[in-house]
Design goal:
Elements lengths: L3 E9 L2 H17 L3 E5 L13 E7 L2 H8 L2 H10 L3 E9 L10
Antiparallel strand pairs: 1-3, 1-4, 2-3
Length: about 100
């Protein structure tokens, strides 16, 4: 079964409020088995544009990634992020090599 991923591109305008979001989102991420693969490290756009912070989370599967985003636990965290940042978040199913016809 393919894993699920969140890919987030974020501009933070209020670091203190965003830090509260980071503390709170740990609850949802632990519940749904998330693991950080990328968490705001050095990045360079080589095509197109990007926001200042990139985050990639891995989940056990796509369903868990979606369930986490729509969970009450994450809603509480996201309420802390709203107004402190602007984000683009994509939930995507990973590729496991066994998907027929996948390119």
């Amino acid at each position: 079964m393919a894993k699920g991923y969140w890919i987030a591109s974020v501009d933070v305008s209020d670091a203190e409020a965003y830090a509260a979001y980071v503390r709170e989102n740990a609850v949802a991420f632990a519940k749904y088995g998330a693991r950080f693969l990328v968490r705001g490290g050095a990045a360079q756009a080589v095509e197109g544009g990007m926001r200042s912070r990139i985050v990639v989370l891995e989940f056990p599967d796509h369903a868990a990634a979606l369930a986490c985003y729509h969970s009450p636990e994450y809603a509480r965290a996201k309420a802390l992020r709203d107004g402190a940042s602007v984000a683009d978040v994509v939930v995507v199913e990973g590729y496991d090599g066994a998907q027929p016809g996948a390119a």
